[in-house]
Amino acid sequence: MKSIIVSMVVAAGLMVAGSAMAVDMPAVAKKNNCTACHSIDKKIVGPSWMDVAKKYKGDAGAKAHLVTKFIKGGSGVWGAMPMPASPKLSEADAGELADFVLGLAK
To answer: Exposed/middle/buried for 66, CB within 10 Å: 0-12, 13-18, 19+?
Structure first.
C-alpha cells in the first residue's frame, strides 16, 4: 500500500514539473511550431534549447546569429537534419525566442 502511495506522489510531482516547463515556454515558440522539433531539455528532431544555450554561452554575437538562423533556417551545426526557414517569423519574435533560449544557460 505504501509503495502505491509513494508512486502516486512521485507521478504527481513529475506531472507538476512537466507542467512548469511547459508554462515557461514562450508563446512565440508554440505559435511558430518550434516545439515540433525542439524542447527545453530534450533532443527531439533538433537540439534541446538548453544544449543550444550551452553552446553559445558567452558568445556576444549569439543572439544575432540565432535570430538569423530562426528566420533563414540552416544545417550542419547539429547534424544532418536541416532546420527549415521561418520567413514569417518577425525579427522581434525571433529576438524574443533567442533571448529565451540563451537565458537557459544562466
So the answer is: buried
